[in-house]
Amino acid sequence: MMDFSQIDVEHLLNTVIEMAILYAPKIVLAILTLIIGLWVISLIGKGVDFLLQKKEFNVSLRKWLCSMATVLLKACLFISVISMIGVQTTSFIAILGAAGLAVGLALQGSLSNFAGGVLILIFKPFQVGDYIVAQGEEGVVEAIDVFCTFLTTLDNRRVILPNGPLASEKIKNITHESIRRVDLSVGISYSASVDDAEKALTNMALENNSVLKTPEPFVGVTGYGDSSIDLTLRVWCKTEDYWDVYFDINRAIKPALDRADIAIPFPQRDVHIIDKSS
């Protein structure tokens, strides 16, 4: 009588041996590929971080780029390893693509801010410490994150600007250049000498140590008002001295014109009283 249990065991054993012979080399090769691949990806991540650090990339952007590069390389390695074993990866890749699309649509606004942050950190239209005007706000840039930028206004308020609109609209970087021009308007009497006024204002500006000699101060007539000749005084100074020069020159204008006997007019009105009883 035939022993069926013995036949089943032998058949199972033969099947296992055949599968081991068939798949063992592939599994060993896949494991070796996985180990070597992870080691290579680690080296690539360190190399990318080193290069970005040499290029003086922002710390947040540098870490994110290294992380994304590592994740993408590991995903490619994982797909390669499972395909080496014999697993069909076509449907797997399709599922990953659909999931990525769904996540992208759900995070559309955040991705826009993220893309704007990457552009700002790469092209550097402004940096930490710059004074900018953007999105109807202005202040000193305190920090640039991947998703938003932080400003501190002159009255010490914190403003958080999303990077998406910030990267796609107009930005005024007030402190980007090393020098700035201070423009001031002055009105003098029609009876005064324009030449004397120009000379007095120029000398007054040159006496200020924070005013640059080159470009030299400029004074010119810009209009004729109802009661005054309008002059514009333009002086150049270092960017960090702008407000000191602005207030100092404003304060010094009147004494300078007084010393030159030049009057600063103010609106006057003659009132005539008519006595209808006479």
Protein topology:
Elements: H1 4-54, H2 59-85, H3 90-106, H4 108-123, E1 131-134, E2 137-144, E3 148-152, E4 158-162, H5 163-168, E5 172-173, E6 179-188, H6 194-206, E7 218-224, E8 229-238, H7 242-259
Antiparallel strand pairs: 1-2, 1-5, 2-3, 3-4, 6-8, 7-8
Domain Mechanosensitive ion channel transmembrane helices 2/3: 70-108
Pfam families: MS_channel_1st, MS_channel_1st_1, MS_channel_2nd, MS_channel_3rd
Subcellular location: Cell inner membrane; Cell membrane
Overview of this structure, please?
The protein is an alpha+beta fold and 278 residues long. The chain folds into three domains: 9-106, Helix Hairpins (Orthogonal Bundle), CATH 1.10.287; 125-173, SH3 type barrels, CATH 2.30.30.60; 179-259, Alpha-Beta Plaits (2-Layer Sandwich). 53% of the residues lie in helices and 18% in strands. The chain has seven helices and eight strands. It has helices spanning 4-54, 59-85, 90-106, 108-123, 163-168, 194-206, 242-259, and strands at 131-134, 137-144, 148-152, 158-162, 172-173, 179-188, 218-224, 229-238. The protein has a five-stranded antiparallel beta sheet. It has a three-stranded antiparallel beta sheet with strand order 6-8-7, covered by helices on one side. A hairpin with a 4-residue loop joins strand 7 (218-224) and strand 8 (229-238). The longest helix has 51 residues, at 4-54. The radius of gyration is 37 Å and the shape is rod-shaped.
